[in-house]
Design a protein that fits this description.
With about 140 residues, this protein is of the alpha+beta class. The protein has a single domain, classed as Cytochrome P460 (Chalcone isomerase), CATH 3.50.70. The protein has 3 helices and 6 strands. It has a 6-stranded antiparallel sheet with strand order 1-2-3-4-5-6. Strand 1 and strand 2 form a beta hairpin. The longest helix has 11 residues. The protein is globular, with a radius of gyration of 14 Å. It starts with 5 loop residues before the first helix and ends in a 15-residue tail after the last helix. The protein binds heme C. The site of heme C (HEC) has 23 residues, from strand 2, strand 3, strand 4, strand 5 and helix 3. The site of heme C has 23 residues, from strand 2, strand 3, strand 4, strand 5 and helix 3.
Length: about 140
């Protein structure tokens, strides 16, 4: 039913509508230091639809995209952790479609990965958004 193609989606995110032109999570800067599993440095980009909702304090609408750059201690890019909210995709877990990309675009995880969802379920009441719940 949902034929999202990971490699194509990576090109969409990095070439067609580069996420690097999107706003950051409201009020935040680049390369925030934080712990595992996504650390030690993160930059969290949100697409304009998500940014507008977050700024207004509203729930994230369908079509929201969150793209987190995870950098190593030497600031080299380690991977991109991505979530897109798609109506009807996975109602049990907030309808999020998850991706973990290597810097070259190869996929480490895609779809409904149990490991991502299990940990992010700690923020079930915040639409599975862990960001802001820990430092
Ligand atoms: C062991 C717990 C854990 C696992 C497993 C995990 N995450 Fe996270 N994730 C976190 C935490 C904690 C944060 C908040 C980071 C911050 O505040 O900077 C986070 C943040 C994120 C964000 C930024 C938006 C948000 O939800 O806060 C994305 C995107 C993300 N994770 C994707 C993934 C993907 C994709 C996977 C699986 C490949 C995954 N995560 C697995 C704990 C986890």
């Amino acid at each position: 039913m949902f034929g999202l193609d990971g490699p194509k989606f990576f090109l969409y995110l990095t070439k067609d509508t580069p996420y690097t032109r999107w706003p950051l999570w409201p009020g935040e800067g680049r390369d925030r230091p934080a712990g595992e599993p996504h650390g030690p440095y993160r930059t969290l980009y949100v697409n304009p639809a998500a940014s507008a909702a977050l700024t207004r304090g509203e729930p994230l609408p369908f079509g929201s995209l969150l793209v987190m750059e995870n950098r190593a201690a030497d600031k080299s890019l380690r991977n991109l952790a991505v979530r897109i909210k798609l109506k009807g995709y996975h109602p049990e877990a907030g309808d999020w479609y998850w991706f973990l990309f290597s810097p070259d675009g190869s996929l480490q995880a895609e779809g409904k990965p149990g490991t991502c969802i299990a940990c992010h379920s700690g923020a079930k009441d915040r639409d599975f958004v862990m960001h802001g719940s820990v430092r």
